[in-house]
Amino acid sequence: MDAYSKDFGWGHRLLRHNARMMELAKEIYGDDGEREVAFHIACDMGIVTINDIPKKPKQPKEKQSNNRRERLYYAR
Fold first, then answer.
1. Is residue 72 part of a domain?
2. Could you write out the three-class secondary structure of the chain?
3. Which domain holds residue 19?
């Protein structure tokens, strides 16, 4: 849905923000596709905003070794 909207710009709202698009996405991609279209429409309508989406906690990065032999061993 997002790729489609990039191709057609704001005009995609006039053509594809409806239940028919959700049914088509469900047919092609299953339940996940239908949910993605519903979420996309809700975002465009302002029902869901960026503040509604929880932020993921940052994962600590693994310490990288300076030892070449150690790096090669763990890269396998």
1. no
2. CHHHHHHHHHHHHHHHCCHHHHHHHHHHHCHHHHHHHHHHHHHHHCCCCHHHCCCCCCCCCCCCCCCHHHHHHHHC
3. 2-54
Whether 11 is in a domain gets the answer yes
In a domain, 20, yes or no: yes
Query: How many domains does the structure of the chain reveal?
Result: 1
Q: Note the pLDDT of residue 27.
A: 93
pLDDT per residue as tens digits for the range 15-73: 667 888 889 889 999 999 999 989 988 888 889 988 988 888 777 666 665 667 766 66
